[in-house]
Amino acid sequence: MASLKSSFSLLIFILSTLVFILAQLHTYNPPPELLNSLDIATKLTSNSTTIALASKDFGGLTEASPAGVFLPSSISDIVKLVRFSYESPASFTIAARGCGHSTRGQALAPGGVVVDMRSISKTSTGEKIRVFKNEMYVDAGGEQLWIDVLHETLKHGLAPRSWTDYLYLTVGGTLSNAGVSGQTFLHGPQISNVHELDVVTGKGEMITCSEKQNSDLFFAVLGGLGQFGIITRARIAVEPAPERVRWVRLIYSNFSDFTRDQEWLITMDQKKKKGFQYIEGSLLMDQRIGSSWRSSFFSGGDMEKISGLGGEKQEGPIYCLEGSMYYNMVTASMVDQELELLLQELSFLPGFSFTNDVSYLDFLDRVHHGELKLRSKGLWDVPHPWLNIFVPKSRIQDFNLGVFTGILKNNSSMGPILIYPINKNK
Description:
Family: Belongs to the oxygen-dependent FAD-linked oxidoreductase family.
Cofactor: FAD
Number of strands: 17
Strand order of the largest sheet: 15-12-14-13-17-1-16
Oligomer: single chain
Shape: globular
Pfam families: Cytokin-bind, FAD_binding_4
Radius of gyration: 23 Å
GO biological process, one term: cytokinin metabolic process
Number of helices: 14
Helix content: 25-40%
Largest sheet: 7 strands, antiparallel
Enzyme class: oxidoreductase
Structural class: alpha+beta
């Protein structure tokens, strides 16, 4: 285990993903007469309601008003806008906004122009999600939602290999960041599963790029936070989609046992031994488990049983290892046996394994159910501070002592604290 090359990504609060931007180093308020000279000027609005929506993001921590919001009906509209700014003696900030799911204002353009990428999906009549079954990839517009990509690929018995926990985000938005979830240990983040991109550069040029074609741009844009261009199309690797998911949550009181099991699970030889295809982890904050949006996995009796661990005998947090086995109906009879053999190798608290069986679609869309729960309580639009940290294996125990059992010991913060084990070579 000493040579294990793994790291943990700690995600604090609701899992959301930064939405990409294209920005100059300065802020400039474009004169209306300049923008009005464009043939796309009618697609620029300064409507107060639209401006207000484009002045905020999901984080709720930052607010900045643009001079206008651009509602493109095609990619060529975006090309014209960016080229105009680049060639103008008075260039202005442009921010491409998908779902505005950033947390620190990355999708905002103070005094500039916000491009509403979702406007393309509302107005374009073209086929924006195309599945190539023989080639095993899907072409999707940067403005398309991952949930729509999933629905379309499932029609062909396929699905992308790597996901984010929350699917109501745009393809371009997550690829401008990373796209991390419980499949990352196996397939890498979403940006490691892209064959090709169409990108509008800062000069207003439309360029197709890949690992072999315009590779500098390709690798700069993937995870580049929108600083190198606007993604308008992505060619994404797919694989045969399973039909069902055996979804397990295991409870630990000892952090060393918890991390040791996570590390072992992500280094298993998947070809020789059946393991999980999805692995996450989380911190359960004592008796507050029942109020968490993630608690819908558990029955009322399960929650009461787990909450009992937070009594006088339990010092420190409770940890939850989450894993899933994918399967098809023809192999359903083998899943229980494979899961039982796997669980025998793990060191969770006896009697504290909990299992659900769901469709593959319901599993991938699991956070949406939590979203609906939060919306019903008026908690979806509250401020969402969020921190994402990579911690090496060599320091994860120190992090537990200093943060989980220290800083957070008497903290009443809401929202999940997620711990992903990740192989560095992915």
